[in-house]
Amino acid sequence: MAFSSIMPLPQVIFLAVLQGVTEFLPISSSAHLALTPWLSGWKDQTLTFDIALHLGTLLAILLYFFRDWVQLILQGFGVRHGSDPELARNPRLMWLIAAATVPVGVAGLLLEDYAENVWRVNHVLIGLMLVSVGVLMIVAERVSKRSKQLGDVSFADSMVIGAAQALAIVPGTSRSGITITFGLFRHIDRPAAARFSFLLSTPAIAAAALKAVYDLIKHGGVAPDLRLPFVLGIAVSAATGCVVIAFLLRYLRSHTLKFFIYYRIVFGIIVIALATIFRHPAG
Fold it and tell me: Has this prediction a pTM greater than 0.85?
C-alpha cells in the first residue's frame, strides 16, 4: 500500500470518526475500515493514514485510562497509590494484563501478513466473523452470572480473555467484542468486562502503533501531502474514541449487548450477501 497519496478531508474525517467509534464498540473497526472503500467506491486509505488512526486509538485509551494505568503500574511494583477500590483489591492486575497480552503478541507475529493482505480483503470471512461473534455474544449474555468485578479477576480469567483477544487479528472479530464476550463467559459483569477489555487492549494497541510508526520512519516518514490528514486523523479518532469509551462504560451499567448483537448479525449477513452476489475477489 502506498505511503503517499492525498485524501479528501471529508474522507479523512469520516474514517477517523469511524475508527474512533468502531474500535471501542463491539462491532469491529477492522471490518468497517476494510469494507468502507469497497462499499463506498473510495480509494483505499494509505498505510500512513492507517497508522494515524492507530495512533489516535492509542491516544484515546491512554488519555481515558491514564489514572488507572498509573495506579496499576505503581501497585504492580508494590506502591499503594490511587483511589479506585476495585483496582486496589487486585494489586496483581498489571501483571495479569501483561501475561494475557502474550497470546495476541504471538498471533500478531505469526499471522500479520494473513491479516493485512489476505483476510482483510476476504469479505465473506469478515461477514462470517461479524455473525459468529454476534452469536457468541448471545450465548455469553445468557450463561453469564455477572458476579465478578475487576477486583475478582484471576489469572485464569485473564488468560482466557487474553487468548480470546488473539482472535481479534481476524477482521470482523472486534477486539472489544470478543474480550467482553469472554469476560462474560468468565462471569465478570458487563461494565467490568468492558473496562478490563480496554485495559487489556492497551499494550497490544501500543505495540502495534509503535511498530507501525517504526515502519513509517524506515520508509521516509509522513509525506508532505499527508501531513494534514495524518494529524487530523490522530486528533479526530482520539477525540471520538474518548467519547465512545465513556459512552460504552456508562451504557453497559444498565443495558445488555443486544443492540450490538443485532447490528453485527444484520451487517454480517448483508456483507456476505453482497460479497456473494458481486463475487468480489477474496485476494
Answer: yes
